[in-house]
Amino acid sequence: MTALANSLRQERERLGLTQAALAERVGVSRKTINTVENGIFVPSTILAIKLALALGRPVELLFQLVD
Amino acid sequence: MQNDVDKAERLSRARAILFYLLATTFVASGLIGLKATHSLSQLAGWIVLALLIALNLTPFPLRFRFNRVKQLMNDEATTLHRQRSFVAGFWAAIATAVGLAIVARSWSIAADDVARLVVTAALAAALVRFATLELRAAK
């Protein structure tokens, strides 16, 4: 089964942001950031693009399909 | 000073704890009320309470409040938690109805007691599931 992996935590930490700070930038709650980072929640396309823009990374680098 | 994200997190946690308390209270009142004769006003009170709880499980109470904290309390993860809580409530209602159908072969159960038990199980399961998902996501 194909799953969605992400490097959100690494990219966030690279910029020295807390989950709350990233949540503030993107306009979601901290728990949404937390669940995305832990792979519990697959974000919508809109949120994935917002996250990529906030972290200054292409969306396909932030999220990858894994088998 | 707390920003909107912190405020939303604090209020979401309070909402989850309130939902646990509501579930406990609703189950207790449902079980205490079994086999009792209810006046029309008692029945109306119970129906209003059940509808208010059901309404609180939907994003409806937050829909017409346009401040940012309310939007953060109803973001994508919360929407998913609501959907999952509805599924839990659905299966709890099915399981309770099936259980009561079996029990009713041996004991007579009044129709209003059956309705109370099915609604109580559905709402309590949905409240507990939602609260658990919200608190787990915030860890």
Offer a quick outline of the entry.
The complex is a heterodimer of chains A (67) and B (139). Chain A is mostly helical and 67 residues long. Chain A has helices at residues 8-14, 19-26, 30-37, 45-55, 59-62, and strands at residues 3-6, 63-66.
Helix-strand pattern of chain A, N to C? EHHHHHE
Stretches with pLDDT under 50, minimum 5 residues of chain B: none
Structural class of chain B: mainly alpha
**Mean pLDDT over the residues of chain B:** 89
Question: How would you describe the overall organization of this protein?
Answer:
The complex is a heterodimer of chains A (67) and B (139). Chain A is mainly alpha-helical and 67 residues long. Chain A has five helices and two strands, in the order E-H-H-H-H-H-E. Chain A has a two-stranded antiparallel ribbon. The relative contact order of chain A is 0.27. Chain B is mostly helical and 139 residues long. In chain B, helix 5 packs antiparallel against helix 6. The chains are: A mainly alpha (67), B mainly alpha (139).
Q: Topology of this structure?
A:
The complex is a heterodimer of chains A (about 70) and B (about 140).
Chain A: E1 3-6, H1 8-14, H2 19-26, H3 30-37, H4 45-55, H5 59-62, E2 63-66
Antiparallel strand pairs in A: 1-2
Chain B: H1 4-32, H2 40-57, H3 60-63, H4 68-72, H5 76-103, H6 111-137
Helix pairs in contact in B: 1-6, 2-6, 5-6
Which characteristics define this entry?
heterodimer; A: 67 residues; mainly alpha; two-stranded antiparallel ribbon; 5 helices; 57% helix; 12% strand; globular; B: 139 residues; 6 helices; 80% helix; 0% strand
